[in-house]
Amino acid sequence: MKPNTQAKKEMVQSMFNNIAPKYDLLNHLLSAGIDKIWRRKVRKILTPDQPEIILDVATGTGDLAIELAKLPVKKIIGIDIAEDMLEIGRKKIAKKKLENVIELKSGDSENIRFEDNHFDAITVAFGVRNYANLEKGLREMYRVLKPGKKAAILEFSKPASFPMKQVYQYYFNHILPAVGRMVSKDKSAYTYLPQSVARFPENKDFLYVLKKVGFKNPGQKRLTFGIATLYSAIK
Prior knowledge:
- The chain is an alpha/beta fold.
- The chain has one domain: 3-Layer(aba) Sandwich (Rossmann fold).
- It is 48% helix and 21% strand.
- It is built from eight helices and seven strands.
- The chain has a seven-stranded mixed sheet with strand order 3-2-1-4-5-7-6, sandwiched between helices.
């Protein structure tokens, strides 16, 4: 692994462990609860496929895994490199009595510890932009997904139209970092967020990367004026 990708991975791991206690509060506060609606859309895009076993990569505190448990699934496995986030997720899962359905494990998106062609669906919510090596992480997702099955990726994006573009830029670059610092006490985490979104190859650029690593029929649906995008593709 290149030194800069290793450094990013360690930085992301440390940052999310640091903000773990306030992560859910800030997520819902800073998105005005819209993030819950976005996760429901991930579940709905997978509903026709009736997946029995799902892998949720960069699961964090397990919000998407919990939403996906509303599907008639046998097993959902969530992986993340931030153990403090996973521990909070496990408590939420236990409170909802979903331990028999959802299992959260320490795991690296670039070295997924499952055999080829194992999962009926793979999801990521707000995690792919944090991959130290985007293509490597996507290739691992492709490898462990069964042929003909679907990957669903929810990620922040940048509105392109006036006035949402201007409102979004001001909110993301000024209000969000200030509130994030005040609540989480982490100076870097909510400055990193707008920077990571700005660098992420969204829209047609991300669809190109999905095709490059092997996925077929990549598509996207812009959500809430383009603040987020739901990508999907087939192995």
